[in-house]
Amino acid sequence: MIDWLRRVDPAFYGKEPHLLRAQAQIARYTEESQAEVRLDVLRSDRLLHVATIAVAVAAYTALTGAGALNAQGDWLTVWAFAVLAVAGARALPWSAPQGAAARWGDGLLGGALVAFPALWTHRDLAVLGAALLAGLAVGLSRGRAGAALPAVAVGLLLGERMPANPLFVLRIAGAVVAGGAGVAAVRLIAPLWRARPQVFTWSALATLLLAYAYAVAFEAPTLALHVPAEIAATAVAYLGICVVAGRIRRAELLARPDGVLTLPQSIVPLLDRSHHHAIICRLE
Amino acid sequence: MNARSMERASRIDVTLAPPLGIAAFALSVVAVTIAATAHPGLRALVVFILAFPLLWTALATALSYMAAEALRADGAELPARTRALDTFGLGFTIANVGRLFPAIGVLTSARFSTAGVVLDSGPWAEIPVLARGRATTSRWQVMVKQRGTLLVGPFRAAVELPGSAIRATAVFERTYAVTVLPAVYQLQPFVEALLAGRHVAGGRFQTLPAAIEEYAGSREYRPGDSPKLVHRVLSLRAHEPNQFFVREFKDPSRDDLSVVLDTAPPLDGNDELHRYRFEKAVCFVSALCRRFAARRLTVRFVCQRGKHDLLTLRLRPLDADLDRLDRELARIELRGDRPTIVRALLGEVRRHGSAVIFVSLRSREQIEQQRFSMVTLTPDHVPVFTREVVGQ
Questions:
Q1: Contact check, Cβ <8 Å, A206/B273
Q2: In CATH, B186-206+253-387 is 3.40.50
Q3: Contact (CB<8Å) A235/B124
Q4: CB contact under 8 A, B35 and A242
Q5: For B1-181, which CATH class?
Q6: Which of A2, A235, A260 lies closest to B390 in CB terms?
Q7: Which pairs count as long-range contacts for A199-202, CB under 8 Å and 24+ apart, including other chains?
Q8: Out of B35, B107, B143, whose CB is closest to A280?
Q9: Interface ipTM > 0.90
Q10: What is the pTM of this model?
């Protein structure tokens, strides 16, 4: 117990609390500090990173009809989905702070997402151009621009589908509104995520389903060409989300406090010179 | 494992997942359904897209609730008594009486409460998998500093599978009481000689008997009395030929000391200060009586428990008596009044041969007490006499 006290309060033997006027103490195990510990556990979880990439790749494959959108030359949609998959995964809270090498690695993945499915359908400059642009967008964006990239992709996806109108401005306005809605949703969920990490499971499922709603609504003919492959890719994406949810649960358990102290108790007279907690409990 | 003897959860607390997440999920399900209505060719894909997350969520939710409901409490391991500043092990055994599924990821915690203090949030002990029909024990280490009664319980066991829309917590209402005795203080070696040396007792004003045992009187012989104690002269004078008398001796070390604890809060100073000094005094008295017991001295302990409630304990050098003292000290409060304490002091001082030690909460001895032949220990003395210890 004393070793534990020494660990949770390094000044255990050094400090001399004001015995009778002790009203405040160092706050330990706050929600915020627990969230930080949890995030550290998630950042160091390799399986979680692999599962995240698997979800992104599988979702992209399913949403683009196993790459069949390339055959239609629907490059803007393909680009947006590729950027959304890679930049969205990178914007997740447990993604480690990235250096230039990691950013360009992601850029390469974004380009590959566009290029690989197109290899057996198109072999022209348009494929290379779309892949290159996706790679460049992911690779070049960093900091706030990197975080905003998924919102830009969402905006482009919805802006593109705005009703044809002689005023091109309406399309831009639609894109801006959609992007803003995406940012607002992320801002709503992000603080919630720190306190209740399992909210990620619901967010991931909702995001995937909304993307499917989009693809089904606007790309139904293309999706109908490769239904078995899309089901397989969707299954992989869902299983990936299951794995991610399990890893988040594991992080919650690993980051939970192994001991708890009562709140400051000025009413409890001190019997020693270590703490002014009435009850201390820790895991054995 | 006898499931009937186990405690069933008194209730299952259900905590919903964040409503925002559930709302987003529900809206997206609606969006996919609406988008798919116009495209019957994609029915297989859409059914799979919708069925997988819905089934997963429903299954995880149902399993979480069923697992929590199948949990039974199989008792807690904890001592009936502990000491303040000491650590005790707490064990809580939980069993899964479900017939179908194991309970996965069970988290257990206990609530601790003592006078005015509640520790209600963990720490959560994890049971990764609790197979059906099996039991396991979660363990904690607990340190209590508050003297008195510690209530342990209710215990909680929470199950929340990934993807579940709820966190199901089984609450076992039974509580266990642990008496928290005063902390063990170690006294400085000079205390004993200073206070209660056999021939140099500061608080003694009567002449000490020179012998170990003094003649106190005689009484009629009873079976079991030693023949060596037969009073020959008195027996010969008896009218009946078979009537014998034996001598009785008194051990002067009995009731050799009186320790009086002040439980009347002083009028000056603040309440916190008085409470603090009182806690120190209680622990000090416990340590003092134990030290006297180690020297085979019998002690009279006197204190006021409440209005018109004077506690007098005769403490022989036996563990049972010392335990009783500690149990009384664990419950004692600062509820005395000055006149009663002074009367009790006077009574002890007037007892024949008794050395009196008064453990006072006041910084200075009052004028009327100075006339008494006794030792008064003020709060300034206690730290000097004491070597405090952190835990044992």
A1: no
A2: yes
A3: no
A4: no
A5: mainly beta
A6: A2
A7: A199/B17, A199/B18, A199/B20, A199/B21, A200/A244, A200/A245, A200/A248, A201/A241, A201/A244, A201/A245, A201/A248, A201/B21, A201/B162, A201/B163, A202/B17, A202/B18, A202/B21, A202/B22, A202/B24, A202/B25
A8: B143
A9: no
A10: 0.74
